[in-house]
User: Fold this.
Amino acid sequence: MGPRKRGSSRGWATVAAPLSPTLVPGEASESDSEPEPGGSAAGTLAAGLKVPGEASETEEEEDEDSAARVPLPGVSRESPSLLQQRLGAGEGRLRGAMAEALGRSFNGAARLLEGLGGPLGRARAGAAATAHCLCLVRRDLRAVAAAVATVTACQLLPDIRVEP
Assistant:
């Protein structure tokens, strides 16, 4: 046997709660008989006011909306209008002109970069040769400095100093 509730001899007692409509703020009511939360005189004035993009409340409004969507005479969805044709042609010319201008710009930049390859290669070779020459000069200067240090440290040589 399962748990029992007070006052019940046969298991769980069922209590029927009264069903009251629960109003959620911002939710549309199911019918006109439900009270609107925060309802006021301003709410009654807005009844019948048509808001663009809002769902219709009755089938009559849906019929009115579908009648308002009838295409205008002379405007066909299959063939573009003269304005659309001219806009399309102008857009095509603009795209072509932009593609041509960008192509010329990129081609000119590519030619310029190709032309820089030779001078940059020569400059690199010159920099490498200069670095090599500097290494040789530094080696020679070290040799001269060692020779001068040897001569000045030697006590066997006479002192030759000319005073001005």
